[in-house]
Design a protein that fits this description.
This protein has eight helices and no strands. The chain is an all-alpha fold. It has helices at 2-118, 121-144, 148-173, 181-209, 212-245, 250-264, 289-302, 305-317. It folds into two domains: 11-119; 120-317, no CATH class. The chain is rod-shaped and about 170 Å long. Helices cover 85% and strands 0% of the residues.
Amino acid sequence: MYKSIKSLGFIVFNIAIGGTGVFFYYQDILNQQATEISALNNKLQKLVSEKQISFQQDVLTTKNIEFAETNTELKQQVIDLSLSLYQAEEKLEDKELQITDIYNKEIQTKNIQEQQYIQSNEYIKSTQLSNNVSNVINTLSNELGLSAENSQQLKALLQAKAESDFEAANAMLELNGSEDSDQISRLNETTEALFAENQAIYEEKVAELLSDEEHEQYKAYETKQELARLADAERFRINELNFIVGDLSETQMSDMHSIFKNAYNFDNSTVKLGISGSPYAKPQNGINPDKLMMMQEHIENLLSNEQLEKYQNHQQKRGIK
């Protein structure tokens, strides 16, 4: 019995030893499989990671290609826009040139029209003559103490005379440069007659409008204006002569004043009304050809030989013998 139990114990021990070995055997196998699984898992994760990297690289490559294509398209758009801008600028420059040309032509046409209008009879009558008349009448109204009604009536009379004198003088100006002496002579006679008629009509109507005292004051005004005009003309001629021949001596200057005063020979008793305010009227005391020739001779006699030579050369250049 004891031997049986001992044998059984030995068998059990051997079985236990053998079971333990089997356990450790299978435990090793499980450990190896776990290691292999872990390795496979690492490989799988690495593959997944590499795949993701590859995928991302593919995505980046695709994005780069798309970006490059987009960049190319944008560059082309920039080129197209630059070309369109250049063409637009060219059209704008052409348009600006056209507008400038049109503007310049309009300005040129306007200037020509203004010049033509300024030289027209309408402008001279409505502006130049009207301004002259208004200035004279304003002064006369103050000096004569005219009423508003008389001032307006006198203004209308003087405006009518100024326009009539202009028409008479203008007919003569139109023959400027003509070589037809007979025609010039006839027109000159007609013009003189028109001036005389205009003057007579004005004098008559002014005498009816103004009192005797106002009439005398008007004559005094015209006398003062004429003396001022003669003084200006005398000063101008002497300064011109002084410029032509050189410095005149005091004696020569004094003698020149006497020559010019004698040449004009102003007579207060023959003063005409309406000359002031009518710039185209026949002057109060113009120099006639005979007086002009005498004045020329007197001037030449006063000059030294050197001055006389300068004076004669200047006269020849002006076409005066």
